[in-house]
């Protein structure tokens, strides 16, 4: 598995509720942890047993050095983890309320400096991967180039269009073997309001028409909706109900788990992969933090493997 993405330091604050515009409120806990969509997804896949590698860029600062060590501790290859003096390591500010809901602001930093030359250095690893994940926390041009490289070499591509942009390059749809977005991203991409599984199905049909092979719209506590060229009728895959502590990074847990199953359990039906990925993401929301909440294979039911 390969992840052409980024790494970032997360700074979550826990509060009783999310603040209104211009309002200052008291929180009851603050901590700094490891995050970033691509890094989260990579770590979750690695904790399930996948051999993973990150193609990414961090600053030559304490956050960057700590992050490289964190990846190593999670058995993620850092051969193509580049450090630069030209920008700081990306960061995110997160506020989480008592219901586990969150708001997030990211500052991409060094992520935006990942470029063509960096991808060329990692070409052999990318082209030999079983699955490659890309997102939009690096420049769209770099993600598109990574997807093109992988796709042309027969590598299964999993694209998570986050943070979403309305005018996404049409090639992202055709180069994505699996196009996986949440309800908010689906709404931005299609202009359709997504507030239910039925709405998600309608948005998925629009995305499918743009050339995707498989479309998955995640719906948080409602699970996800799947659609594919071979199964062109939207299908809702529910998830078990749990009491969330912190939903931050749950979508990344889902994507990392899905990538793991695509790479190591290709004989499973897509529906079964999604059921298992839903379960793993539900486990993650029952603990605080992003990567700190991600389960290891040894802590999960044997029938998931």
UniProtKB/TrEMBL annotation:
Where in the cell?
A: Cytoplasm; Nucleus
Q: Which cofactor does it need?
A: Mg(2+)
Catalysed reaction(s) here are: D-ribose + ATP = D-ribose 5-phosphate + ADP + H(+)
Instruction: Give the Carbohydrate kinase PfkB domain ranges.
Output: 21-295
Under InterPro entries, the record lists: Carboh/pur_kinase_PfkB_CS, PfkB_dom, Ribo/fructo_kinase, Ribokinase, Ribokinase-like
Could you confirm whether the keyword Secreted appears in this record? no
Q: In which pathway does it act?
A: Carbohydrate metabolism; D-ribose degradation; D-ribose 5-phosphate from beta-D-ribopyranose: step 2/2
Q: Which domain of life is it from?
A: Eukaryota
- The active site annotation covers 252
Name under which the protein is recorded: Ribokinase
| Species the sequence originates in | Vulpes vulpes
Task: Give the organism's phylogenetic lineage.
Answer: Eukaryota, Metazoa, Chordata, Craniata, Vertebrata
Its gene is: RBKS
């Amino acid at each position: 598995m390969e992840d052409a993405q980024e790494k970032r330091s997360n700074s979550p604050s826990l509060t009783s509720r999310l603040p209104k515009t211009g309002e200052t409120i008291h929180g009851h806990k603050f901590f700094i942890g490891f995050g970033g969509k691509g890094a989260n997804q990579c770590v979750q896949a690695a904790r399930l047993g996948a051999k993973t590698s990150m193609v990414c860029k961090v600053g030559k600062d304490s956050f960057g050095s700590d992050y490289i060590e964190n990846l190593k501790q999670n058995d993620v290859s850092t051969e193509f983890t580049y450090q630069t003096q030209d920008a700081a390591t990306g960061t995110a500010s997160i506020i989480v309320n008592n219901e586990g809901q969150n708001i997030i602001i990211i500052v991409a930093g060094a992520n935006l400096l990942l470029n063509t030359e960096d991808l060329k250095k990692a070409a052999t690893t990318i082209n030999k991967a079983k699955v490659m994940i890309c997102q939009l926390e690096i420049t769209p041009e770099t993600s598109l180039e990574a997807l093109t490289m992988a796709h042309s070499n027969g590598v299964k591509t999993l694209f998570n269009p986050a943070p979403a942009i309305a005018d996404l390059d049409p090639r992202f749809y055709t180069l994505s073997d699996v196009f996986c977005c949440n309800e908010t991203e689906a709404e931005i991409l299609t202009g359709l309001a997504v507030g239910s599984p039925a709405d998600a199905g309608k948005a998925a049909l629009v995305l499918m028409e743009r050339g995707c092979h498989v479309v998955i719209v995640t719906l948080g506590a409602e699970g996800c909706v799947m659609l594919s060229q071979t199964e062109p009728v939207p299908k809702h895959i529910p998830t078990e109900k749990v009491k969330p502590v912190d939903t931050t990074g749950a979508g990344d847990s889902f994507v990392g788990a899905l990538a793991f199953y695509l790479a190591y359990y290709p004989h499973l039906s897509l529906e079964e992969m999604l059921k298992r990925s839903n379960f793993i993401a539900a486990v993650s929301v029952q603990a605080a933090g992003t990567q700190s909440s991600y389960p290891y294979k040894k802590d999960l039911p044997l029938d998931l493997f």
